[in-house]
Amino acid sequence: WTDRRGLSGNYNLFNPNDPNSDVFNGQPSNRGWVTVGGHGNPQGIANPNSLPGQPNAFTAQDIADQILTATNPDGTPLYSPGDQIWLQSCETGKNPPPGQLGLSTPFAQQLADILGATVWAPNADSAFDSNVGEPLRWSVAPGGKLLPFFPTFKY
Predict the structure, then answer these.
(1) Which terminus of the chain has fewer CB atoms gathered within 10 Å of its CB, N or C?
(2) pLDDT the model gives residue 1
(3) H-run or E-run covering 105
(4) d(Cα 129, Cα 47) in Å, to the nearest integer?
(5) Three-point CA angle 146, 6, 128, nearest 5°
């Protein structure tokens, strides 16, 4: 995670040697939001520190556990109930291909259900970009969208 202004907000899952890591760290934090950055796909977010023989992607439960236990520099929790989650991670809002790991629900929906929080995620590739003289921004590839996933409650 990173938070240069002392606000809850950013959780960095990019490998520290990946140029995206520095770009992600430079983003401002926003109250009421936890932004998670990392390389992803419909099944999960890449584990930048995986070793041979270990899973190379975090599951929705893994990410939820990390979000719930992460703290800000002042020791306060990164996540508070009511915060929304923004996944800056490719395709985490896309339906997985049939038969992939037995999952049929987008990663973002799984995370929303576990946390009981709204999760925003792209259904396509995404990237950090900027025009000369303009602030850095994160965007979804043409044809894709940033979609909200609301928790579903099973009775």
Answers:
(1) C
(2) 35
(3) none
(4) 23
(5) 30
Token digits for 12? 């960095």
DSSP, collapsed to helix, strand or coil, labels residue 69 as helix
- Length of the chain equals 155
Say what the pLDDT of residue 4 is: 36
Tell me the average pLDDT across 47-75. Answer: 83
pLDDT of residue 62: 93
Pairing outcome for strands 137-140 and 57-58: unpaired
* Diameter over CA atoms, the chain: 52
Residue 134 binned pLDDT confidence (cut-offs 50, 70, 90): low
**Residues near 33 by Cβ (< 8 Å), separated by ≥ 6?**
8, 9, 83, 84, 85, 86
